């Protein structure tokens, strides 16, 4: 790109941050941030809050999570796709059913999602997105009239397709004259439009597809691609994610 | 993404590094790197080498470029899209015609492209790509049988559409069973396939389109989107880009 001339405008911005490594390029303090980790952290957070969890406390490190032992909270720790030994559960959405989480507080650490939440803490507000709450989240964002940054948690700071495609789904729902899109938002929407009629088929092209199958989490994956299964919007309130 | 299980394979990789900020995630030393800055640095480098420039020396800072005053080299410095005062020229391809550059050495610093070259120096080999040399570059890459990293220079570490789409064009030409693509390569190819029948039209959606028009460089932009106008492949040899 040859030059960006500063463009004065009162229009709001929708930006997509393709990996947490690019967060320093965005002005978080002027924006509502949506954290996205489709497989599986933010899908499970949406499902847990929908199902009556009182709060989910995202922490970056397994040790921080372990420090809550004996508090009565449920402790959830996932690293590299597996439940960490000694913890109640990891980030499979099926661990966040009403029977398991209603009225409970869950302390959660995951490889990518909770890390992205911590890195976004200077934002005006942080909410959690997944295909499960796509429409209610998008409607709420429209009503807010704020700059929006869609933060893809990716995989260990790498770009991934599923988080980007979800970001594109939000861009598509938001799209109107009110917003200026950055190039990443334009690309994300285009990729979503290619994928939308067969999300699972599109993502089966991804470099991780074969590896995910080996993990035996195909049911989790299928669940995380269900659209509008929930309507709750988890929002960060102090150190806790609660229902908006 | 939930987990990447290490997958042993003898197949070669094609990765797309969407911005220089993500270079630390890639193993450059095992790979051939293609540096991409479509508007306009790498297009101009391809054109200059094609047109008989003896060498182009990429430097990161304007001061380094200025230090070559009096050596007989042509000095080219661009910042934020404009020629820096006191320099022979910037990064418009029309400054790299045979009449101007044949037999000459050019010292070049640009906002994004030369920076990306410097950051890629640990690679096995660094070559320069643009739409101008797309097919000859892709054929050479195929013949090399190496891991390939396509490095998009972007804009000040931000993702941009034009560099990504060119990366996708290379992925498309390379695509065969020999290579494993990362998610960024898959996305780049999909975006290229959307764009390929009307590159200029597709890029006119980009967030920078209006601003580029204000710079009055539409002719440069149109030229940089010409496919296979040249066949020379610039390669870094020590501190100089020369014809392969």
UniProtKB/TrEMBL annotation, chains A, B:
It catalyses: (2R)-O-phospho-3-sulfolactate + H2O = (2R)-3-sulfolactate + phosphate. Its cofactor is Mg(2+). Signal peptide: none annotated. InterPro entries: ComB-like, ComB-like_sf. Pfam families: 2-ph_phosp (PF04029). Keywords: Hydrolase, Magnesium. SUPFAM superfamilies: ComB-like. Its EC number is 3.1.3.71. Belongs to the ComB family. This is Probable 2-phosphosulfolactate phosphatase. It comes from Paradesertivirga mongoliensis.
């Amino acid at each position: 790109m040859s030059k960006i001339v500063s463009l004065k405008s009162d229009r709001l911005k929708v930006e997509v941050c393709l990996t947490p490594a690019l967060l320093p390029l965005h002005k978080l303090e002027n924006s509502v941030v949506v954290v996205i980790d489709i497989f599986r952290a933010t899908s499970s957070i949406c499902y847990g809050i929908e199902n009556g969890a009182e709060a989910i406390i995202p922490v970056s490190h397994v040790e921080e999570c372990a420090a809550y032992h004996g508090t009565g909270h449920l402790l959830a720790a996932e690293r590299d796709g597996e439940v960490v030994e000694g913890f109640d559960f990891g980030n499979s959405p099926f661990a966040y059913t009403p029977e398991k989480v209603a009225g409970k507080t869950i302390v959660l650490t995951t490889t990518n999602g909770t890390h992205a939440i911590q890195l976004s803490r200077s934002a005006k507000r942080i909410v959690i997105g997944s295909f499960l709450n796509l429409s209610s989240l998008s409607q709420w964002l429209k009503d807010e009239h704020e700059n929006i940054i869609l933060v893809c948690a990716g995989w260990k700071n790498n770009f991934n397709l599923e988080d980007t495609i979800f970001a594109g789904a939000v861009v598509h729902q938001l799209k109107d004259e009110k917003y200026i899109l950055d190039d990443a938002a334009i690309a994300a929407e285009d990729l979503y439009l290619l994928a939308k009629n067969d999300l699972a088929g599109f993502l089966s092209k991804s470099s991780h597809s074969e590896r995910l199958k080996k993990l035996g989490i195909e049911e989790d994956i299928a669940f995380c691609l269900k659209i509008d299964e929930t309507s709750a919007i988890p929002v960060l309130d102090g150190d806790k994610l609660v229902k908006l």
